[in-house]
Amino acid sequence: MSKKSSNKNLHKASQEKEDEFYTQLADVEKELKHYKDQFCGKVIFCNCDDPRESNFVKYFSMNFEHLGLKKLIATHYKEANLFTQELPYKLEYTGDKNNNRVPDPEEFITEMVSTGDFRSEECIELLREADIVVTNPPFSMFREYMLMLSQFC
């Protein structure tokens, strides 16, 4: 099978500017278990991950104490829309407060001032606070995302 045909869905997504791809929790666990020592005492930023949907957020919140994380931040992007009341939000999680091993939205999720776009000043400020970024960037903006991120290395 050729490389192009094996990535048919990604090529189609690139052409259609479709960016909603979620990494499966099993895949997140399989990969991130190798970096336990690198996460200890760090602020993790998932700057392109809906805190309520992202398996990266689930992994880091369920393993927050085990990994010895300092803080988990995740931002939700939402374009301004006159027809919906949903606003962009962010998660700032500093550990389990009620022993359920997950962030409780009413305790840790707050509205954002901006749209939650990774390029917004609000998200850039959160990026400056982070030690490590773990995310699924928008596929259609991958180059732009990596260029922006490289400015902080």
Write down the overall geometry. globular
Count the E strands.
5
- How are the strands of the biggest sheet laid out side by side? 4-3-2-1-5
The fraction of residues assigned to DSSP E strands is: 5-15%
Distance between the terminal alpha carbons, to the nearest Å?
37 Å
- Count of helical stretches: 9
Percent of residues in helical segments?
25-40%
- The averaged pLDDT comes out at 84
Poorly predicted runs of 5 or more residues: 1-5
Work out the count of structural domains: 1
Q: How is the topology of this model organized?
A:
Layout (H helix, E strand, L loop, with lengths): L2 H4 L1 H9 L8 H8 L3 H4 L3 E4 L8 H8 L1 H4 L3 E5 L13 E5 L11 H4 E3 L9 H9 L2 E2 L8 H9 L3
Parallel strand pairs: 1-2, 1-5
Antiparallel strand pairs: 2-3, 3-4
Task: List its traits.
153 residues, alpha/beta, five-stranded mixed sheet, 5 strands, 12% strand, disordered N terminus
Give an account of the 3D structure.
This protein is of the alpha/beta class and 153 residues long. It has one domain (24-150). It has nine helices and five strands. The protein has helices spanning 3-6, 8-16, 25-32, 36-39, 55-62, 64-67, 105-108, 121-129, 142-150; strands at 43-46, 71-75, 89-93, 109-111, 132-133. It has a five-stranded mixed sheet, with helices on both faces. The longest helix is centred in the N-terminal third of the chain and has 9 residues, at 8-16. It is globular and about 40 Å long. The model is unreliable at 1-5 (pLDDT under 50).
